[in-house]
Design goal:
This protein has 271 residues and is mostly helical. Helix 7 packs parallel to helix 12, helix 8 packs across helix 12 and helix 10 packs across helix 11. The radius of gyration is 18 Å and the shape is globular. It starts with a helix and ends in a 6-residue tail after the last helix. This is Lytic murein transglycosylase. Keywords: Signal.
């Protein structure tokens, strides 16, 4: 899908603790960033990470411009939207990946209860299985910009601190903390707060790496749905309880129907 639209739909579902004394939005950007650095350290981020990440950061005017013109709803019908997303080339690649990662996907499905076809659909639709556009904007700069703007400052202050925690935990180095226009990152486009909350170290290397590790990506994607009430073994087509759970992935009914259609085309039993 248009990952930037998806990000803003996901924002409404984001749940990350906001600092008790939130930094004051607007005003001098450097003063704001310095305050955010103090808040991050109070939340457990090391001074070294704070200094490395926030030193010299500037406002990204392109992010602000995109945010202000962003629309929160799909303009296309489901049929028109799905026609451009559920296409033969994607289905062919997804089918091949189902075979290549059969054992991994079976393990994920057993542990989290989410059908492998749906996990594959999400992975494909978001970034073409990691081979598409995961975004190239520095996440810290993006989130600092959006946090400084007063429209949703508390939300993005929380996301900025979550992003710093990703680096602090050693999950990703700062150079790999790049993403799209709302700070979403990785092969299935997690916001930083979701990365912290739902990320799973499934390859056992001690880090949650949603940019490079396929096991981590697939398990974390399934875990997000499981934690939010996914009912294993139950249908997930339109009108089901699991279809409602999928709102925690994306609140757009059109996008969720597209996810279901893609999974169905891969042989998933959705109803």
């Amino acid at each position: 899908m248009n990952k930037h639209i998806a990000a803003f739909i996901l924002l409404a579902a984001s749940v990350f603790a906001v600092p008790a004394q939130a930094a004051k939005c607007g005003g001098d950007f450097n003063v704001f960033v310095a305050q955010m650095g103090r808040e991050a350290q109070a939340a457990g981020v090391s001074s070294a990470v704070v200094n490395e990440a926030l030193s010299g950061v500037t406002i990204d005017q392109e992010v602000l411009a995109f945010d202000k013109r962003q629309r929160y709803t799909f303009k296309k019908s489901f049929e028109d939207y799905a026609r451009t997303r559920v296409i033969p080339a994607r289905l062919k690649r997804a089918t091949q990946l189902l075979q290549r990662h059969a054992q991994l996907l079976a393990r994920v499905e057993r542990q989290f209860g989410v059908p492998k076809e749906l996990v594959m659909a999400i992975w494909t639709l978001e970034t073409d299985n990691g081979g598409g556009d995961m975004g190239k904007r520095p996440v810290v700069r993006t989130l600092a910009t959006l946090a400084h703007d007063c429209r949703r400052t508390e939300l993005f202050q929380g996301e900025l601190i979550a992003a710093l925690k990703i680096v602090n935990r050693g999950d990703l180095p700062l150079r790999d903390l790049v993403g799209a226009y709302a700070g979403e990152l990785g092969q299935t486009q997690f916001l930083p707060s979701s990365y912290i909350k739902y990320g799973v170290d499934y390859d056992g290397n001690g880090h949650v790496d949603l940019r490079h590790s396929v096991p981590d990506v697939l398990a974390s994607t399934a875990n997000l749905l499981k934690v939010n009430g996914w009912r294993a073994g139950q249908p997930y087509g339109e009108g089901t309880e699991n279809f409602q759970v999928m709102r925690e992935w994306n609140r757009s009914e059109i996008y969720r129907k597209t996810m279901v259609l893609f999974a169905e085309k891969l042989g998933g039993n959705t109803n």
